[in-house]
């Protein structure tokens, strides 16, 4: 593959004829922003997340009869599968031959890739809450700590390291049902940006104690839900998808690390996930059956290209610590 081109992977639910159901391999040109679908690695079940490691792809698959962790070569050949009891809604790659995984059922795990088994699991709990947890995000930070977002119980779990020893649990107010969702990080500003699915806010947190610094409202419109969330590599722009309104909100990150909303631009239906590659923003538009590419600046976004993918969901997580 030429130097300006790179392979990208994402999960897709596919259409009624099962086309694109599985892991979709895309080829993206980092110079001109063009994108094309190259192939699909079929899966026997539903997958939300795929991990892109240098020598393999790892995906959690919820099939009709069992849930497995599947291992694929970059050529699309399945190497092995491991039966698991829980469905990984998100998994964060880390150094040392292990995965950090979060589950839709509200738990985090340390998964040993060498032994193919879970070493430790932490179940999310909150006093006064009878409902079950639901987790969407876990991240291995540069300082070694691990951060997990509990969507249903409205908590952030801060672990001392990948061993999942709890350092702190931040409880968001019970009276304000926000459905906290995803975190984006600015290492330069030592800030984290948390979006809320129901109230459509960007909550700015410090990355030392994860205390709230500021809450920024993106919209008051009804039936609009905040979803995908991505920060540009130079940490100067933050983009957030709003499903229902089908727009991307673009915020400029100021010198103090606080986002300043500049504008929004229309995209395909049901923007699900966002991924920055240089100045290009990739958007998986589930109900438009495509992946769109935009060149995003602080003043305007320009659509560059799109590739047809039936029901695209989530872009692969790169196999290295960010």
Automatic annotation (TrEMBL):
InterPro entries: Haem_d1_sf (IPR011048), Lactonase_7-beta_prop (IPR019405), WD40/YVTN_repeat-like_dom_sf (IPR015943). Pfam families: Lactonase. This is Lactonase family protein with 7-bladed beta-propeller. It comes from Faecalicatena orotica.
């Amino acid at each position: 593959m030429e130097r300006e081109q790179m392979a990208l992977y994402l999960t897709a639910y596919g259409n009624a004829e099962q086309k694109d159901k599985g892991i979709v391999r895309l080829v993206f040109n980092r110079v001109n922003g063009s994108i094309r679908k190259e192939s699909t690695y079929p899966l026997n079940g539903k997958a939300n997340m795929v991990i892109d490691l240098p020598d393999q792809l790892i995906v959690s698959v919820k099939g009709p009869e069992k849930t497995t962790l599947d291992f694929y070569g970059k050529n699309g050949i399945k190497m092995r599968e491991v039966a698991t009891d829980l469905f990984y809604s998100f998994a964060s790659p880390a150094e040392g031959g292990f995965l950090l995984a979060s589950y839709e059922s509200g738990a985090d795990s340390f998964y040993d890739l060498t032994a193919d088994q879970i070493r430790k699991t932490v179940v999310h709990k909150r006093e006064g809450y009878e409902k079950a947890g639901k987790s969407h995000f876990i991240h291995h930070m540069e300082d070694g700590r691990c951060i997990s977002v509990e969507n249903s119980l409205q908590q952030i779990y801060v672990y001392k390291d990948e061993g999942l020893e709890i350092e702190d649990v931040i409880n968001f107010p019970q009276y304000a049902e926000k459905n906290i969702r995803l975190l984006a990080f600015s290492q330069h500003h030592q800030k984290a940006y948390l979006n809320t699915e129901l109230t459509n806010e960007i909550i700015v947190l410090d990355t030392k104690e994860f205390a709230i610094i500021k809450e920024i409202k993106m919209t008051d419109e009804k039936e609009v839900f905040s979803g995908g969330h991505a920060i540009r590599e130079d940490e100067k722009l933050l983009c957030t998808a709003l499903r229902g309104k089908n727009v991307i909100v673009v915020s400029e990150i100021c010198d103090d690390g606080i986002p300043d909303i500049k504008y929004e631009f229309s995209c395909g239906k049901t923007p699900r996930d966002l991924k920055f590659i240089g100045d290009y923003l990739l958007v998986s538009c589930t109900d438009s059956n495509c992946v769109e590419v935009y060149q995003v600046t602080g003043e305007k976004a320009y659509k560059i290209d799109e590739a047809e993918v039936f029901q695209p969901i989530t872009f692969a997580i790169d196999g290295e610590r960010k």
